[in-house]
Amino acid sequence: MIRNISFGSCYVYSPTGQCVVSQRSRMLRALLKAGDAEFLSRYAARVQHEVYAHRLFAGYFQATTVLIPVPGSMPQLPGVVSVAEQLAAALVDAGLGGVVWSGLKRVIPVRKSATAPGGARPTVAKHYDSFTVAPRDSSPERILLVDDVVTKGRTLIAAATRMHEAFPQAPICAFALLRTMGLVAEIAQLVDPCVGQIRWRAGDAHRCP
Length: 209
Hints:
209 residues; two-stranded antiparallel sheet; 30% helix
C-alpha cells in the first residue's frame, strides 16, 4: 500500500450523537446517500465557496485534475450512476477540477462498512483486491479520488494504491464530502472543512483528523 494520501472534506457526520446538530448531520448523510441532485449541487457550491473564499483545498481542484469517483461496495450495474459519480460531476459543474473519469471499478463486492460490525468491516486488502483500473489513452496529470463519505479511510487508501500502480507519475489526493466523527460524542457544526492525511500504519488505514 502507499504510505499516505492527503484528503480533504467539507462536512462532518455523527453516527450516534443526540444533539440537534448531530441529528441534522444524519439527515445530511441520508440526502447525500440518496443522490438528491438539488442537494448535491448545494454541497458542491459550498465546496466552491471554501475553495475561492477561504483558499482551502489548494491543489485539489485544478483545471488539469481528473476527478475519479470511488465505487460503492458492489460492482456497478450498467446505466446506474453512483452518488460519487454524481458528486464528482457536480463539483466539475461548479468549476472545480477538469473532467470526471469513472475508470476505477469495483469487480468484487465487499461488505458495506456502514452496516458491518467493527470487526467485520472490509480491510484495506479486501478493498484493494476488489478494485481494478480501466485502460486509459493517457495518464492523468493530477488525480483526485472523490467519495461521498470517509470513515477510517480504508477504501481511499486502497483506491489510491490501485491508481498509483496504473498511473505512477500522477499526484493523487482524495476528497470526501462528509467525514464520520464516530469517536466524538457530539458535533457542534455541520460545516467543518479540513485537509488531513490517511496513513497506512500497522497494517491498517488511519485518518487524521
